[in-house]
Write a structure and sequence with these properties.
The chain has a domain at about 10-170: P-loop containing nucleotide triphosphate hydrolases (Rossmann fold, 3-Layer(aba) Sandwich). Strand 7, helix 6 (about 205-215) and strand 8 (about 220-225) form a beta-alpha-beta unit. It has helices at about 20-30, 70-85, 100-115, 130-140, 155-165, 205-215, 230-235, 250-255, 265-275, 275-285, 310-325, 360-370, 380-385, 390-405, and strands at about 10-15, 45-55, 55-65, 90-95, 120-125, 145-150, 185-190, 220-225, 240-245, 260-265, 295-300, 330-335, 350, 375-380. The strands form three sheets. A six-stranded mixed β-sheet has the order 2-3-1-4-5-6, with helices on both faces. With about 400 residues, it is of the alpha/beta class.
Length: about 400
């Protein structure tokens, strides 16, 4: 299995207090990366650690608070533990003393609701061995592997084997941004505005990711600002097979790039790579159906310093309002913060490109809206739609799908 260069599995460790979760992490990694103590509740909040596990490779381990924590503060810690589920690729449930009760059952049910694979490790088996009856029952009822482990008799190879068996391929593989759209030696033109939103002295992450992906697939990346596109495209030889623009200058790029050259945006590339692309295509045209008083939710994957002309907080709301002519309410949620309202109170959900998120995180974030039948779209696709160039912006991918079918 080829591992994508920027893809690292996210693995969560769950269980009751003082069941040896932190000890298991240290044993798996061969390092003292988690605090170990005999005092129950030492781990109070989810803690992320970038580690290397022999047999797995580079990954992110998340150590969580005990699921049996009590009291008002304990309940908040348990909720934070459950909040980890949408962002991980595999859950390891640690049990001990042959105890598997409602706490464990409820946890695995939550995993199933999230379509999250899991394995079970019976820890501290040197104190009380795992009973064959419980092992068979758990493997049958919960359709997973149960591995017995203890410090005195470590079962690292068996645990890693089970992790590899249940780890989804998506945890390792990241779909290429442009690899299936270009051939050896093709030139791709990247239109990158340098304005007050551009970070000092560097390009934004999606632009860097696309440049790297072009080079990885033996293409040639040519980068210019929007003001130089007209002059450069006239003398550029050979002509690019694809032009990729920052979404906020879509209109300028559409006018400058000849119609025989495919055009899309960085945000739409990311939407196809790790967003809910098919539902984005279906949901985007709903912008035309928005009514007075409708509430639109914008989801940003990262937190950043807000400028006076911020793309999510200012430009997209302004463009959609101008396009629809309706009085709309816009709300924005940054990072992976909780959505403040019942999902049914929103008429449309617009997600950013998600350059700092995983596909699993984005899909999990959008799942409640999709299940509720609420249209979802993406920053770039929404911008293309309100500027009248939606069909052109998605053409490279729709055409590719048709070619794959043929």
């Amino acid at each position: 299995m080829k591992k994508a260069k920027d893809a690292r599995p996210h693995i969560g460790i769950f269980g009751r207090r003082n069941y040896g979760k932190s000890t298991l992490i240290n044993t798996l990694t061969g390092q003292n990366v988690a605090i170990v103590s005999d005092v129950p509740g030492t781990t109070t909040d989810p803690v992320k650690k970038s580690v290397e596990i022999p047999g797995i490779g580079a990954c992110v381990i998340i150590d969580t608070a005990g699921m049996d924590d009590v009291g008002e503060l304990g309940e908040k810690r348990v909720q934070k533990t459950f909040d980890v589920l949408p962002i991980i690729d595999l859950a390891i449930l640690v049990i001990s003393n042959n105890i598997f009760e409602s706490i464990e059952e409820n946890f695995l049910k939550k995993c199933q609701q999230e379509d999250l694979p899991y394995i079970i490790v019976h820890n501290k088996s040197d104190i009380q061995p795992l009973s064959n009856e419980l092992k068979k029952r758990l493997e049958k009822d919960w359709n997973t592997r149960v591995v017995e482990h203890s410090v005195s008799a470590p079962a690292i190879n068996k645990i890693v084997e089970a992790m590899l068996q249940y780890m989804p391929e998506s945890a390792y593989m990241t779909r290429s941004l442009v690899g299936d759209l270009i051939n050896y030696g093709d030139t791709v033109l990247l239109i990158t505005p340098i304005d007050i939103e551009a970070p000092e002295g560097r390009l934004i992450l999606p632009q860097v990711q696309v440049i790297r992906d072009i080079l990885d697939h033996d293409g040639i990346a040519v980068v210019c600002k929007e003001r130089e596109v007209d002059a450069y495209i006239r003398k550029m030889e050979p002509k690019p097979v694809l032009a990729i623009t920052d979404s906020q200058v879509f209109l300028k790029a559409d006018a400058a790039i000849p119609k025989n050259i495919k055009l899309t945006s960085f945000s739409i590339l990311l939407a196809r790579q790790k967003g809910d692309f098919e539902n984005y295509i279906k949901g985007t045209p709903y912008i035309s159906q928005l009514k007075d008083g409708d509430r639109v939710l914008l989801l940003e994957g990262c937190t950043h310093q807000v400028s006076c002309d911020d793309i999510g907080r200012v430009k997209i709301p302004r463009w959609i309002t101008q396009f629809t002519g309706k009085k709309l309410e816009f709300e924005i949620v940054s990072g992976l913060d909780k959505i403040p309202r019942d999902i049914h109170e929103y008429a449309l959900i617009i997600h950013c490109g998600g350059c700092v998120l995983t596909r699993r995180q984005i899909i999990a974030r959008l799942r409640p809206a999709v299940k509720a039948g609420i249209p979802v779209t993406n920053y770039g696709m929404a911008i293309a739609y309100v500027h009248g160039i939606f069909n052109r912006a998605i053409e490279p991918f729709v055409q590719r799908q048709l070619e794959d079918l043929i």
